[in-house]
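User: Fold this, then the next.

Assistant: Folding the first:
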Amino acid sequence: MPIATVNPANGETIKNYDALSEEEIERRLATAESTFRTYRTSSFDERARLLRRAAGLLDEDTESVARVMTTEMGKPVRQARAEAAKCAKAMRWYADHAAELLADEEPDESDVKDSGALRVLVRYRPLGPVLAVMPWNFPLWQVIRFAAPALMAGNVGLLKHASNVPGTALYLEDLFHRAGFPEGCFQTLLIGSGAVERVLRDPRVRAATLTGSEPAGRSVASVAGDAVKKTVLELGGSDPYIVMPSADIDRAARIAVIARVQNTGQSCIAAKRFIVHTDVFDAFTEGFTEGMKALKVGDPMEEETDIGPLAGKQGRRDLEELVVDAVESGATVLCGGVRAEGPGWYYPPTVLTDVTPEMRIHHEEAFGPVATLYRVADLDEAVAAANDSPFGLSSNVWTRDGTEVDRFVRDLEAGSVYVNGMTASHPAFPFGGAKRSGYGRELSGHGIREFCNITTVWHGA
């Protein structure tokens, strides 16, 4: 895949970029290693000062960087601004909390005595250069949620961003440079996917994090495993959105539309499978479908646009094939289902029901504004339907019954359970999945410790 900015609203190539040469890759790896040796000794106060400066610059740049994201991957510009604001918030959160999250820990005194020590400390030390392989769908946020904790922990970052968002990738490198971080603290590597293994195997790279497709995750995990390097993987999801009879059905239907089509439906944590109790199925379906029909599809640079183009032509083709397969196998289309002709990679908001396990869309992630509806008879069937997926990133549950909440929290196979609300990431809460959605956690204290050397310091007499 060429490294290029291609406007998905019209398919026009705006700019092509040359991949880094082997010599330049080597120079950047050497710089990362050299910078880490000194940056790792910097204080939390100094790192926090730099990160807050980066957040302030991002606030100033919100409009311009939002338009870069929208141009490169089609995100409605209102959502792009919100993404930039969220990134600045996360940087400030880690600047405020990192020292506390990584403070030395002292085990229980009785255990210290039992070990024969006078004192024992558990200390969190940085690992070194970390390679981040990031996707295009949230081109700023996916990077910042790695970079902010990694930099505050004393690591340095190497970004291999998706090849269709090079402008955003280069902006990030420039942002940290302008904020005053030492050269080499955060570097963008404009390289193709074929060069990732060479970088990951380099002994100066100590760990890797990837957000992306399952095949990409398998590839990075395989190489990192062979090289015995730590990885964190977030590989997508097909999140259930369960609605039970005690729920506020009107609100559940209204929020369901937002939960499905945020970022034009191109979100790992978007609700994708709507599992509704038979007693409220018709009422929910009516409200949800009408909400999907009312969405405005159009130019992502226009303020009133709800649904922009999909980020890539192949992505639209993949989504369309899932819908065609479902319809040919007996699914019913309640709205959408046929893309309009014309420039750009648009696909209409689509609702499918009568979906069965034989259909591809039942088990594959639909990365776009396509929702599947399932009717269930009771709590047991709802849990079984929700877990009937190879993914387990997040889940949404709508019920006012405390017993049902307890059951869902206990039995749903997912990294998060959101009750009477839609899934959303926040810097204070751990984020990650189960099953084929990946492993490890981002954000919160769990995320910042993923790339630390957890060191036991034992003091004898």
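Now the next one, as you asked:
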Amino acid sequence: MPLEFAPEGAAALPLHVIEQDALEDWLSGQSATVATWVQAAGFTGGLGQSLLVPDGNGAPEMALAGYGTEAARKRGRFHLAAQAASLPEGVYRLEGLAPERAAEEALGWLFAGYAFDRYKDQKPAKATLVAPVGVDAARLEAIAAGEALTRDLINTPTSDMGPIELEAACADLAKAQGAEIEVIRGEALLDENFPMIHTVGRAADQAPRLIDMRWGDTGPNLTLVGKGVCFDTGGLNLKPGSSMGLMKKDMGGAATVLGLARMIMALKLPVRLRVLIPAVENSVSGNAFRPGDILTARNGMTVEINNTDAEGRLVLADALSFGAEAEPDLMISMATLTGAARVAVGADIAPYFTDDGVLSGALDAAAHEVADPVWRLPFHEPYEAMIEPGIADLDNAPKGGFAGAITAALFLRRFAGATRYAHFDIYGWNQSAAPGRPKGGVGMGARALLQALPEVLAL
């Protein structure tokens, strides 16, 4: 099913959304035949239940969707996506859904149409929805398409999504949306002063590169920086096998900013958008960088390497320095950066760091509104000493293991200069399937950012 709504005016079967404690009242307004059918089928209005109700000739007359209780709904999101997956193929029109929930549930329904089927036939939901009255259908379709791009990029293994293929995906997006793209590859990174991107990626077969995409010629300057480590072995500090299995998703930051960029461009937001992606593989070879090496970043700061598995902050540092040179109105970095962030908030929440109260307030409100949970963590300045090793300006992997997400964010902030800045430390992966969110790659924080941008940038 395409990630879009049924055409306006399409013949649609009514889908009555019924809360559990409202079922009796709803049944009292129906015919005895309908009431008997519903009761005989054991439909209670429980969250996730669905039921087709036939007419006198046995053809579907309506469908019912259980909406449970408010307490049950607080434990998840996109609840009607479960019905999108369980109802038979057809076109449906929501009835009885509170207007304030319509956009979230309609978007979840679109998400239910996603399946990663590059290597095997899958079975996404084929039930199509008529856009509910009052929702911005084109906006939700653009969001769904951007999310699908993010999921596809993360789900694709590195054998088919290395730096070359990630560059190609960026080029395809640029062509489709009328953006411009420039790429600096291999030894040219040294000539153009991106030494840490080159160092992290030089041991791989595919050359490291910096992808620079630009779109729009009016409005505030918005720069999105995404970590594009297409696979992370850990380098010479080799990861154990149990930690390496999901490292195809270590370019989840790049995938998420590309999905967000697609949303922004498709919706034609009045911004001058720039996307910077350092695309590398952190591999093991004779010329891999080593623990104890001291690197000089683009902005002149020196970095002692105490763990080659803390490579994402290195490639982001050069990209952030480059982005800050243009003095954008807002710069956002997104990265699958630290396990500490997962320990702090789990896999379902996107923690972020910023010094900007307006940005934080807008993000928190937007996250609640669009069901894209985020949580602000602090740039706790007393921890700055933890990333200062003495022998160099910065340490890429402070000893002790405490506050790993914060120290990583403080490291990155050193390269953002005076730019208005926020950093997202995302996971980019659903560990188990949920309505509208199959197991696998997922965008985190992008929809909250999209919702917050008009307030943050005064659009």
